[in-house]
Amino acid sequence: MPYTAVLIPGDGIGPEVTEATRRVLSAAGVPITWVERHAGVAALDRGADSVLPKATIDAIVEHGIALKGPCTTPVGGGFSSINVALRKKLNLYAAVRPVRSMPGVKTRFENVDLVVVRENTEGLYSGIENVITDGVITSLKVATEEACRRISRFAFRYAVHRHRKKVTVFHKANIMKLTDGLFLRCAKEIHEADYPQIQYEEHIIDAACMRLVQDPTRYEVILCENLYGDVISDLCAGLVGGLGVTPGANFGDQHAVFEAVHGSAPDIAGQDLANPLALLMSAVMMLNHMGNIHRDESLRRIAGRVRAAYDVCLTEGETTRDLGGSLGTSGFADAVIRRLGGA
Ligand code: NAI
Prior knowledge:
By secondary structure, the chain is an alpha/beta fold. The protein has 2 domains: 1-92 and 248-343, Isopropylmalate Dehydrogenase (3-Layer(aba) Sandwich), CATH 3.40.718; 108-240, Isopropylmalate Dehydrogenase (3-Layer(aba) Sandwich), CATH 3.40.718. The chain is built from 11 helices and 12 strands. It has helices at 14-27, 41-45, 54-63, 82-89, 145-161, 179-194, 205-214, 226-240, 277-293, 297-315, 329-339, and strands at 3-8, 32-36, 65-68, 94-100, 113-119, 129-133, 136-139, 166-171, 199-204, 221-224, 249-251, 256-258. It has a 10-stranded mixed beta sheet with strand order 2-1-3-12-11-4-5-10-8-9, with helices on both faces. A two-stranded antiparallel sheet has the order 6-7. Bound molecules: 1,4-dihydronicotinamide adenine dinucleotide.
């Protein structure tokens, strides 16, 4: 196999959806040798001393690319989020979450085709919380000019490469005048200096949410800081059929980790109920990315075949229950495999 990539099964539904995805990719002839590493509760269960073992980080650094299942972060207690830690450690500063109407998936809207670009390393997710005194706690929102400029540049570059005409920044600079104010200033300056051909808008996030649920087709690329991006991603998922159909990627300058927007869904774990499509779509993003960096058209062709196969399944109603069908996780993978055309 000419390529290697790290596979992290994760927790909850993670092992089920990663296995389904791996089977589809293998049936499609993807030339990747998977290097399996663990994170989350799964890592502790295997004797690691941390939810994010050094061996897992080292493997991503070595291979450059990972496909990751969701990891559980227990609420409260001493665990910090594995995902936040992973993104910070590897400097995966840009989360990209494409949200598009899927064939055969009936929702209130048609023709949604937008992308959420989320700053992934700072904001309130810096995790700097302090007990000032009994009953008084603060949480520090961090904004640095470097990170704000970096994510803005990424969003505009993404818009140009994907032939998108407009970038809209969601913000709350009317209240958070300094932090969100800096974010806005950086986005605006980069737009004016380097991307004047792209239409640029600034929307206050509360009103933007209303506009999103009234008419999501008016947005193309949504650029926001960390917490807003997290929330908006799930809202957008709801516009096109839910968390089962929203893929994602975390990009840094050196590494990329591809993962669905959804979490480990403990409520349905181990029951063959999870929809593996969001992770499969993330894998398609991964193949296209690898195709670009290695200038290997065959990877992009395989990505196209996998996408065409799941699109046919959706059109024919061969889906998991969250999308109204009757297939289980592995049954959906089988259906996609049946629909894969020849090479
Ligand atoms: P969740 O995304 O796991 O679940 C929310 C709801 O969506 C649940 O009802 C679940 O059954 C459903 N759902 C999610 N994925 C689905 C799929 N593929 N197919 C069908 N239904 C699906 O969010 P929740 O419950 O807030 O988080 C659970 C755990 O996941 C937490 O520990 C959280 O920290 C973690 N998490 C991890 C993420 C990651 O590793 N990237 C991202 C988000 C949450």
